[in-house]
Design goal:
It is built from 55 helices and 22 strands. The chain is α+β, with helices and mostly antiparallel strands. 44% of the residues are buried.
């Protein structure tokens, strides 16, 4: 930069030789000069006002002043023993320099005041004598000299700051003086505790600070700048030089950024107030820019610090080498042992400036201490960095990566500034660097040996003899490996620069090429397989490298995979460090980020070859698919040894991504064919589940078991591979049987093998290590739920017949053959064991988090059973699951061990772990009994309830026609009046219709039931039959049954006399008892004849009637004497079907109590039925509200498309207009989220509360909202929406447009204007209590109602703790808002207007929850489409322990094949976690149960047993 300008080095040399500070007293003996100085200076010192009042100087002529100055000049060169005299000389000159001040001191001579600049220049030059080191002085005298030097430096700096009279010549003299004293103090080799060592940092700081001041007052000439640069090159062996250089550079950079990028750019905060005041206030922006660039280039290329031969080229080092007793080379001076630390500090300073340009908001990027100039050489350590002048730099990886500034400069601009230095520093010690050194040494050997330097300051030419370039001649502390820390800092800084690339930004190919070459050199793995500082620095700062669309970045894939194989699978990572402290957890986290960004590459690029950067064509071509096995092994090994919760969370998300991608790839891309038979995959390719002979898995005796170590693929593996791939090692607590079972499928490289491997590993770690950590347990259970939903093609499994498991299903008379039944059964068993362990933990361990994991485990079990219903055909599996359900509901198992006698339900004490656990167990039990094997029903997945209600049933009832043939029921109230309503167990409403439906003509007792319970609405039709339909289906109504003709003979009836007593009664001798019965005569005498006459008349009349009856019978056609055919009686059409049903099913068996049992005699009698009064007009509304409470959870995801640069909500919403175009991949992604449904015909969740869960053809009274909607299929919720559901959850995907804002505004206005009292009865799903007044004070046990539904002898169930019950409703966590955002430009996520878009994302539930959503509570899933066709994920959400769910992980790179599935799973898991985090949340079946109880309290009829029976005989209206 200054090549055309002359250097002022000659003047500095002259000053150093004393030309400017020579006194006439030097011509006299030293003793004579000493006496003169003492006499003169003592007298001058008395007038300064130090010991007495100051007096005007007696020196009034220039000659007098010059003579005195000549004396003082000699006095400053006296030996240090004359300390007092030298001190007086310093005091006199310091006082005289005040002539340059606005108010000079009174003791300053008049000539000096009149020509202050002239005399000031002489005084400044004379000060040089003070700084000259004295030989042979003691440390005490050296300290005294240092004190005086500090006084002079302070005075000069103060004078430069406040003087307004200094001219350019004086400024030049001052700067040259400062350069000269730095030269004389710092240029010689460092000697501990000499004056140069003590003053080093101070003289440098004064030089730089005064130089900055000169840039404002009198900008230095190019010659001065060139001289400064040359001088600094001679001081590079001093660590203080680099420290002060960094300090000034950062201060200037802070000012440069302030005016270059504006106030919005992240401000750089320097350490300490002093550094903040380093830049003079009056420096203009142009001056700052000019000064900043010149200071940046002041010390030259920092890589020269790695060459001791260059640093030791000065004459001072040569003189030391020539005078050394034993003879030595210049580069062997002990002070050069600090060069590695100096190099590291220089690169750190550059790195700090790069961070500043990138906008990394670090406070005190670099901190300077002025007491560590002589810090000892660093020693290899993995602990904190050794003491140095920047020892307070944050250790690499200790902080979370701060976000980069949006206004940061382009990567090319930063590389133009620092790229050359960083690229060279990154190659230090590499193969390329060694080759260049050998080439330079070879060229130097051809030239004559010479120690002649090109100029005084030396250059970086290599004109030394070859012996000096021989690395063997360097001391052990200066070998090239000692510069590893600086090299690591340089390559890490380069990684940060390239990772700062913006979307669409172009980086020059030359920079990419140099960067890739540097990375390839630094990623080479040593034989010891240790993680050195360079490797760690690359991994720490390259997390985003593979997700930025860098051209050709995939050529580095093999190198990065080899590095990951060193770091991730090793539990006790070997860190070979020197001066940088690494946080192992952060290092692993960054490595996991890299792993998550490359997991999908093998299946994305498949057999595409990976080019090699080197020109060596002899190496075998490597394809992407060949890396799949290594990536899988890294992932599995990392998951096995990981101990950090966040890292484990990320690995679990990556594992599900891998399995899902493999399954989808084999299902869609390959069509079930063997993907290993394709071109480019060699027969020796290692298997997914096999591994090389790793030193960590040598044998079982070492305490580890290697999965798949016996596979056949291993024997044929190419032994010439460059790396030994690590094997999956499992700790020794895994049984040998487990290993043998796994090895049976370990020779197959496909999705099924990965599925089995993932299931085993996650289940085992869940039981052994993760059960105490909430987030990891939830992530593991989410992964297992995702694995359960995978459907692997049978043709892709390639297993032998021995691994097939046959399950006989008697109900369908078929045999199910499943290849993964054993694995699924084991997974369910492990999850059940996990639940048992969690429930069995001691009471102090039972907490909200523990119960959340249990609830999640129940949900995971339900997912496995729903996807694999054949598991319930297995006796052991069924028993295991039901035992766990019993444990969740009651708190204990009926049979603790196999040999124990079972304990019956009536004998057990109900103590569930918590009500949430009990609710989850109840839900699982209902799913087992009602849904497994039957979902989806005929109604489709959009509903688990019947699509029939009272109105629909009455439309099918043919017994209620009207005169014109139309149906007589037209509204819900009329339909309900035809039903009888009962409540059983205080949780189930029975609606009974006794009218037969139109599809049945049998005159059987028929009853139609609508059962509304906690888990939905179900419709049944029942008939009372005495014979099965197979036997009673054919009716015989023939007139002539074919019986024989009866005989018409009329028989004579014999006449006989009726006797009242036997014939022999008269022969019996009467006894006294016989006379106890009076005769008729005796009665006549006692009561009179009238009574006897009436009795006789009655007997006579009866006899006459009997005779007439017999005569009539004989003469009728029905008598036996006539031929008459028997006909059946007429069919009875009048049944009390409801009464028969209730009686047959035991609902009318009233409780019989033992009056002698005091327990049973207490309390009112328990009634099995409660009759509801349906006459109230509000009854139909309450039933409709109950039907509107879904038995499943429901969530909504809002999808947005953001074009590049869009930041406003109006622009983003406008992208969904008809005339707008967007990426076709976005539309394809939407189709994979769910299936399109028409809102008008949809009976599930629609994304809007008002029209969800309506029967088909009966909803959508909001046609006025759809009038302006285009007929084109959009998914804003007006006509169409994307929908997905399983047995326990529903989710709607809405793509809002302008219609949503208008619709939400109108709905809000309607809600506010309407009567809110009706809406208030709909309970808030985020509170445990019900809004009804009768239930407000009732605790949480209302959800189960054991105190009213069961006998009093059963124990009272547990309730919530009071702290949870009394939690205010307004403080309850609101439902989560989930946004799915497609970004064209990744950086737009920083300005995404979440707050403004909330107005478009309304479901109608916000007013019910009494809490409007906030932007801070929203979860946002960003998807950015890369040029490769992959998708980059960015997650934002509220801070919290359970904010982020799997499988999506921040920074993950996805394939478009799996994006819909994984986004949907993540949204569902986010919502589940949010519900788990709130223990006041009511599950859907609990909400329905509470609503039923509310209806009971409102409409129950208190009937006695007789009134109840009488009610059954009454007809419905």
């Amino acid at each position: 930069m200054y090549s055309e300008w002359a250097s002022l080095s000659a003047q500095i040399t002259a000053n150093s030789c004393g030309a400017q500070c020579f006194s006439v007293l030097n011509k006299f003996p030293a003793s004579a000069g000493r006496e003169v100085v003492i006499s003169v200076v003592k007298q001058l010192g008395t007038n300064l006002g130090i010991t007495q009042n100051a007096e005007p100087s007696h020196l009034v002529k220039d000659e007098e002043v010059r003579w005195c100055m000549d004396v003082i000049c000699f006095g400053l060169s006296l030996p240090l023993q004359e300390h007092e005299t030298i001190k007086d000389c310093v005091n006199v000159y310091c006082e005289w320099l005040t002539a340059l001040h606005p108010q000079p001191r009174i003791s300053v001579p008049k000539p000096i005041c009149e020509d202050a600049n002239l005399y000031a220049r002489q005084i400044i030059n004379h000060f040089h004598n003070l700084f000259v080191p004295r030989q042979g002085e003691s440390s005490d005298t050296i300290k005294r000299q240092a004190v005086l030097c500090h006084r002079v430096l302070r005075t000069l700096q103060q004078t430069a700051q406040i003087s307004q009279h200094m001219d350019r010549e004086t400024w030049d003299t001052l700067l040259l003086f400062l350069l000269a004293i730095n030269e004389i103090l710092l240029a010689p080799p460092t000697v501990k505790d000499d004056v140069g060592d003590q003053l080093c940092e101070r003289v440098l700081s004064v030089l730089f600070e005064v130089w900055l001041l000169a840039c404002v007052r009198c900008f230095p000439s190019p010659s001065l700048w060139k001289t400064l640069q040359e001088s600094c090159a001679m001081w590079r062996h001093r660590i203080a030089l680099v420290d002060q250089w960094n300090r000034v550079n950062l201060a200037l950079t802070a000012r440069l950024l302030e005016f270059s990028y504006g106030p919005d750019f992240t401000q750089l905060k320097n350490a300490g107030d002093e550094d903040g005041q380093l830049i003079p206030a009056g420096m203009t922006n142009d001056c700052v820019a000019q000064t900043w660039y010149r200071f940046l280039r002041m010390i030259g290329n920092p890589t020269a610090l790695c060459s001791p031969h260059i640093i030791s080229k000065s004459s001072h080092f040569v003189q030391w080498a020539l005078t050394h007793e034993k003879g030595a080379e210049t580069h062997q001076h002990p002070c050069l042992q600090m060069l590695p630390q100096i190099f590291l500090n220089a690169i750190r300073g550059i790195s700090s400036q790069v961070d500043a340009f990138l906008g990394l908001s670090k406070t005190a990027l670099i901190s300077l201490t002025r007491s560590s100039a002589n810090a000892a050489p660093t020693t290899p350590t993995s602990g904190p960095p050794s003491a140095s002048s920047i020892n307070s730099l944050p250790s690499i990886g200790t902080d979370l990566r701060p976000p980069l500034s949006v206004a940061r400069p382009k990567c090319n601009s930063i590389l133009h500034l620092f790229g050359e230095w960083l690229f060279e520093a990154a190659h230090i010690g590499g193969d390329t660097w060694l080759q260049n050194r050998k080439k330079q040494a070879c060229e130097a050997s051809k030239r004559p040996s010479s120690m002649i330097m090109e100029n005084r300051k030396g250059s970086i030419s290599l004109s030394q003899p070859n012996s000096l370039n021989d690395p063997t001649s360097l001391p052990p502390t200066l070998t090239i490996d000692k510069y590893e820390s600086g090299r690591a800092e340089a390559i890490g800084t380069l990684c940060k620069i390239f990772c700062a690339k913006k979307t669409g930004e172009e980086i020059l190919p030359v920079y990419l090429a140099r960067f890739y070459m540097a990375l390839q050199q630094c990623l080479k793995i040593t034989e010891s397989k240790e993680c050195d500082e360079t490797l760690a620095s690359i991994l720490l700062h390259s997390a985003d490298l593979f997700r930025l669309d860098l051209d050709g970045i995939n050529v580095l894939l093999p190198g990065f995979i080899a590095a990951l194989e060193i770091v991730l699978p090793d539990k006790d990572l070997k860190l070979k460090t020197q001066a940088i402290a690494f946080n192992r957890t952060e290092l692993r986290r960054s490595a996991i980020n890299i792993l998550l960004s490359i997991m999908v590459l093998p299946l994305h690029y498949h057999t595409l070859p990976i080019r090699n950067l080197t020109s060596d064509t002899g190496e075998k071509v490597l394809t992407f698919l060949q890396l799949k096995s290594r990536l899988m092994n890294i992932l599995m090994n990392a998951l096995q040894v990981e101990t950090d919760a966040q890292n484990t969370h990320m690995l679990l998300g990556g594992l599900l991504l891998c399995v899902q991608d493999a399954v989808t790839f084999e299902d869609t891309e390959l069509g079930g064919t063997d993907h290993l038979s394709g071109p480019g995959v060699q027969h020796h390719e290692e298997n997914l589940l096999s591994s090389a002979g790793s030193d960590r898995s040598a044998s079982l005796a070492s305490g580890t078991v290697s999965f798949g170590a016996q596979t056949t693929a291993m024997s044929s593996r190419d032994t010439g591979s460059a790396h030994d791939y690590p094997s999956l090692t499992i700790s020794d607590d895994i049984s040998v049987e487990f290993t043998h079972e796994f090895e049976s499928v370990a020779s197959y490289d496909n999705a099924h093998a990965l599925f089995v491997r993932a299931t085993y590993l996650v289940c085992h770690r869940l039981i052994s290590s993760w059960k105490t950590d909430l987030n990891v347990s939830l992530a593991a259970l989410e992964l297992l739920s995702g694995l359960a939903r995978l459907h692997i093609r049978e043709t892709a499994r390639k297993l032998t017949n021995d691994s097939l498991v046959k399950i006989f299903e008697p109900s369908q008379n078929i045999t199910i053959i499943s290849t993964d039944a054993l694995e699924c059964k084991r997974a369910v068993k492990w999850i059940c064991d996990y639940i048992c362990y969690q429930c069995s933990r001691p009471p102090p361990a039972h907490s909200k988090d523990l119960h959340s994991t249990i609830v999640a485990a129940f949900q995971c079990t339900a997912a496995w059973l729903m996807q694999h219903p054949y598991l319930l055909q297995d006796k052991d599996c069924l028993q295991t699951v039901l035992e766990v359900v019993e444990l969740g509901i009651s708190g204990t198992k009926s049979q603790s061990k196999n040999g124990d006698l079972p304990k019956f339900k009536d004998e057990k004490e109900l103590k569930p772990a918590s009500m949430r656990v009990r609710d989850a167990a109840e839900n699982l039990l209902t799913i087992i009994l009602e849904q497994v094997g039957y979902f989806p029903s005929e109604c489709g997945p959009e509903s688990i309830s019947s699509l029939l209600d009272e109105l629909a049933l009455m439309k099918h009832c043919n017994s209620l026609p009207t005169g014109d043939g139309s149906v007589g029921v037209c509204n819900a109230e009329q339909a309900i009046s035809k039903f009888k309503y009962f409540v059983t167990e205080n949780s189930t409403i029975l609606a009974l219709l006794e009218e037969p439906l139109g599809n049945d003509q049998d005159p059987q007792p028929t009853v139609t039931l609508l059962i509304r319970g906690p888990f939905g609405r179900h419709a049944w039709t029942m008939q009372l039959r005495h014979l099965p339909r197979s036997k009673s289906g054919v009716k015989y109504h023939a007139v002539n049954p074919g019986r024989p003709i009866p005989m018409n003979d009329i028989t004579q009836r014999p006449e006989c006399e009726q006797k009242n007593f036997p014939e022999g009664v008269d022969k019996v001798q009467p006894c006294v008892a016989d006379y106890s019965i009076p005769t008729i005569d005796q009665i006549r005498e006692q009561y009179g004849a009238n009574v006897i006459s009436e009795l006789e008349a009655m007997l006579e009349n009866q006899s006459i009637h009997e005779k007439l009856a017999w005569a009539e019978s004989d003469n009728s056609i029905d008598s036996l004497s006539h031929a008459q055919e028997c006909v059946p009686p007429t069919v009875c059409h009048e049944f009390h079907a409801a009464r028969l049903f209730l009686s047959h099913f035991g609902f009318l068996s009233f409780e019989i109590r033992d009056p002698h049992n005091p327990i049973e005699s207490l309390g009112p009698p328990q009634r099995p039925l409660i009759v509801l009064d349906t006459k109230s007009t509000a009854f139909a509304m309450d039933l409709d509200k109950l039907d509107k409470l879904s038995a499943r959870t429901h969530d909504t995801v809002y999808c947005f498309y953001v074009k590049a640069g869009q930041t406003s909500a109006q622009q983003i919403i406008g992208n969904m207009a008809e005339d707008q175009s967007y990426d076709s991949h976005f539309a394809n992604m939407l189709q994979t989220l769910g299936w399109p449904v028409q809102v008008a015909e949809h009976s599930g969740w629609t994304g809007f509360a008002h029209n969800s869960w309506s029967l088909k053809g009966t909803s959508i009274p909001a046609d006025r909202y759809q009038s302006n909607v285009s007929s084109e299929s959009n998914y804003n919720g007006a006509q169409h929406v994307l929908y997905w559901a399983d047995v326990s959850s529903e989710i709607a995907f809405v793509v809002p447009n302008a219609w949503n804002l208008r619709y939400n505004s109108e709905m809000d206005a309607c809600s506010l204007s309407s009567n809110c009292s009706d809406q208030s009865t709909m309970s808030n799903v985020w509170t445990r209590g019900d809004d009804a007044g009768s239930l407000k004070s009732k605790p949480r046990n209302l959800s189960l109602e054991l105190d009213t539904n069961t006998r009093n002898k059963e124990p009272v169930p547990p309730t919530r703790r009071k702290g949870n019950v009394s939690k205010p409703t307004l403080l309850v966590q609101a439902p989560a808002k989930i946004f799915l955002v497609w970004l064209e430009s990744f950086e737009d996520y920083l300005n995404f207007p979440v707050e403004d878009l909330l107005a478009y994302a309304r479901t109608g539930e916000e007013l019910q929850s009494m809490q409007l959503p906030r932007a801070a509570d929203c979860h946002v899933i960003f998807l950015h489409s890369l040029q490769s066709g992959l998708l980059r994920v960015k997650l934002l959400g509220p801070p919290g322990r359970m904010s982020f769910a799997t499988p999506l992980v921040d920074g993950m790179v996805l394939s478009r094949r799996v994006v819909g599935n994984l986004v949907r799973q993540t949204a569902l898991n986010i919502s589940r976690r949010r519900r788990l985090d709130n223990d006041n949340y009511q599950p859907p079946h609990v909400r329905r149960r509470l609503k039923v109880q509310d209806i009971v309290q409102k409409y129950k009829m208190d009937l006695s047993e007789a009134e109840l029976l009488a009610h059954l005989f009454q007809r419905s209206i």
